[in-house]
């Protein structure tokens, strides 16, 4: 028998909020909001379509292994994941921000990041950071953190951080400044490659509806 069910992996917070209008355009309305409920599986107005609520950085893994047919993940998360087993048909232009290098105000970054120099960098994104500094010829000791990178230079754990910046408010509040732009980040639709083939009739109209919203927003 044909499998008519669809499972969509989303993270709560900004991605969930910014995905609601996309889902609405595809006629999909969640039965409840993940912030209000502790449920990890959320039903929708379609009996066969459900949402699973996972950590932002776990979305590609759920989709890669087919536990979700598709999902939405930041480019930051996708670069670190590697994108294996994922089809990435659409940049959704949501949850936009910038991957930046930041240092404490007054730190002479230009002098400390000359080719041949050695820098301690705290980040949640070791691959992105390593590649960025390798291209500049700067040696780095990467210190992997899982959150609150902004604290690291303030307590002497690192010289610099590589982190996402949107308003700049967090850097400012912690007396840090952005000194280098690495890459612009937005969120992508990621589809399990096998599901795209076996459930093409179900998934394709949703991709089209999302694409329509993205095109209208431009
Ligand atoms: O929060 P959690 O640890 O569960 O996971 P997460 O931080 O990966 O998830 P979430 O929901 O916070 O972010 C999901 C996705 O949103 C990320 O993967 C990014 O692609 C995207 N995004 C967009 C951001 C931001 N903007 C952002 N500003 N993700 C994180 N931030 C953080 C940033 O790390 C820093 O701590 O917000 C802070 C800076 O914000 P400003 O506005 O003060 O500059
Ligand atoms: Mg977060």
Q: What would you note in describing this structure?
A:
The chain is of the alpha/beta class. The chain folds into 2 domains: 124 residues, D-Maltodextrin-Binding Protein, domain 2 (3-Layer(aba) Sandwich), CATH 3.40.190; 88 residues, D-Maltodextrin-Binding Protein, domain 2 (3-Layer(aba) Sandwich). It has a 6-stranded mixed sheet. The chain has a 5-stranded mixed sheet with strand order 8-7-9-6-10. The N and C termini lie far apart (41 Å). The relative contact order is 0.19. It binds phosphoribosyl ATP and magnesium ion.
How many discrete domains? Answer: 2
- Specify the number of helices: 8
By secondary-structure content and strand pairing, the structural class works out as alpha/beta
Helix content: 25-40%
- For the record, give the distance between the C-alpha atoms at the N and C termini, rounded to a whole number: 41 Å
CATH homologous superfamily title of the largest domain:
Periplasmic binding protein-like II
Sketch the major β-sheet.
6 strands, mixed
- Hetero compounds: phosphoribosyl ATP, magnesium ion
Can you give the mean pLDDT? 97
Strand content: 25-35%
Can you write the helix and strand succession as a string? EHEEHEHEEHEHEEHEEHH
Give the CATH class of the largest domain.
Answer: Alpha Beta
Low-confidence sequence ranges: none
Instruction: Report the C-alpha radius of gyration, rounded.
Output: 20 Å
